[in-house]
Amino acid sequence: MSRSYATGQITVIVGPMYSGKTTELLTYVEIYKLGNKPYSIFKPVIDNRYGEKEIRSHSGMCEKAIPLDHSRKALEYLKDEKAVFFDEVQFFDEELSNVAKELRKLGKDIICAGLDMSFKENPFMTTVKLMGLADKVIKKKAVCHECGEYKGIISYKLSGNESEIDVGGMEKYVAVCMDCYEELKKKQR
Ligand code: ADP
Ligand code: TMP
Ligand code: MG
Ligand code: ZN
């Protein structure tokens, strides 16, 4: 019996900063590009670290992206996309999970990337909800800034305020393993 699969797939790429989430998302973009399949890339408007209208990896790879102040506004831009990308999902409203469900029903693939945990070890709820719905979750690691092991699963904030929403890069955050995270926190006290 032949069956047609009308639904798309939700892929969620998570991990600490510098773990290669945006790089992995851009690798997926290339797959659709090579296959001549239409796609759109969205980012939260708050993420102004690089250009306002692009997503960029720490190693300098970039693509144009549409900034949104609410996830539901993505629907207004959509035409005949086969894939819809969202980077930095931790900064999106939690409604993004419902938007992703709707897009999947429409047959679109949704590829999301974002932090699973804040520097305070708190899960980011938008990311968590997407992980729960996903067809596939890819959890990435970074090289620990302190011990050099490939075990970095959390970001540590070096400076600045205590806010868990605070855009920045190497001047503010490093990625560390859990042992080094605890050590750094002890020293901080
Ligand atoms: P993310 O979106 O998860 O922050 P990116 O895809 O933007 O990650 O960047 C990944 C790149 O960051 C790596 O290819 C590497 O060049 C660089 N990098 C810098 N610091 C680290 C680290 N501690 N561990 C791994 N990669 C790092
Ligand atoms: P990245 O994962 O692509 O490196 O980007 C993560 C962004 O999130 C970066 O702008 C810093 C920010 N951030 C927070 O706002 N809160 C946090 O707790 C952490 C770890 C990062
Ligand atoms: Mg990134
Ligand atoms: Zn370590």
Spatial order of strands in the largest sheet: 5-2-6-7-1-8
Can you give the helix content as a percent range? 25-40%
Tally the helices: 5
Distance between the termini: 65 Å
Task: Show unreliable segments.
Answer: none
Shape call: elongated
Q: Write the element-wise H/E pattern from the N-terminal end onward.
A: EHEEEEHEHEHEEEH
Rg from alpha-carbon coordinates: 17 Å
The overall pLDDT, averaged over residues, is 95
Small molecules held by this entry? adenosine-5'-diphosphate, thymidine-5'-phosphate, magnesium ion, zinc ion
Tell me how many strands there are: 10
Notable traits:
single chain; 189 residues; alpha/beta; six-stranded parallel sheet; two-stranded antiparallel sheet; 5 helices; 23% strand; binds adenosine-5'-diphosphate; binds thymidine-5'-phosphate; binds zinc ion
Describe the structure.
It contains five helices and ten strands, in the order βαββββαβαβαβββα. It is α/β, with parallel strands linked by helices. The strands form three sheets. It has a six-stranded parallel β-sheet, sandwiched between helices. It has a two-stranded antiparallel sheet with strand order 3-4. The model has no long low-confidence stretch (mean pLDDT 95). The structure holds adenosine-5'-diphosphate, thymidine-5'-phosphate, magnesium ion (MG) and zinc ion.
